[in-house]
Specification:
With 161 residues, this protein is of the alpha+beta class. It has a single domain, classed as Alpha-Beta Plaits (2-Layer Sandwich). Helix content is 58%, strand content 16%.
């Protein structure tokens, strides 16, 4: 193998490792590390250029019960269905991530709170057809801590159901 071929091979291997480092293996979405890096970059840009940015936190309801009653493969299938729905219904400029066992997130650049709520209503209708129940929390820039605000909204919704 000549030097150019070897360097190209090393470069491709490095890119593959970087992608694996930021991707959830079950869903193919960003993992928490990839999500945190993307959130930081997008929030910095939104602050600098005074542009809207919304963060949606999603919690899958009753996943533990599904795992207990039907086994973990059934729970994994629900998570994969949710991930597929997020991928199909998000814009190309949006980012979807699995940030915990039954927790997902959407980063929606150039999206105000009303637009984020409308997008999530459409997504929730699709998930209802698939019998996947979720709780959501939405926060929009200029909130200084998007994650904390979205998490607060998520907990509030969970308490009200």
């Amino acid at each position: 193998m000549n030097t150019d071929s070897h360097n190209l091979w090393l470069h491709l291997m490095l890119l593959q490792l970087l992608q694996q480092n930021q991707t959830d293996p079950l869903t193919g979405l960003l993992n928490r590390r990839g999500f945190n890096e993307t959130l930081q970059q997008l929030h910095t840009a939104a602050q600098r250029y005074q542009r809207p940015l919304s963060l949606v936190l999603i919690d899958v309801q009753n996943l533990k019960a599904t795992n207990n009653q039907h086994g973990h493969p059934a729970g994994d299938q629900r998570l994969q269905q949710l991930a597929q729905t997020l991928q199909q219904h998000k814009r190309t400029s949006d980012y979807a991530a699995r940030i915990g066992g039954d927790e997902f997130a959407l980063l929606l650049p150039e999206t105000n709170e009303t637009q984020a709520q409308q997008a999530m209503q459409r997504m929730q209708q699709q998930l209802n057809r698939q019998e996947i129940a979720i709780h959501i929390g939405i926060a929009t820039h200029p909130s200084p801590d998007l994650y904390a605000e979205a998490d607060r909204q998520l907990k509030k919704r969970k308490e009200n159901t």
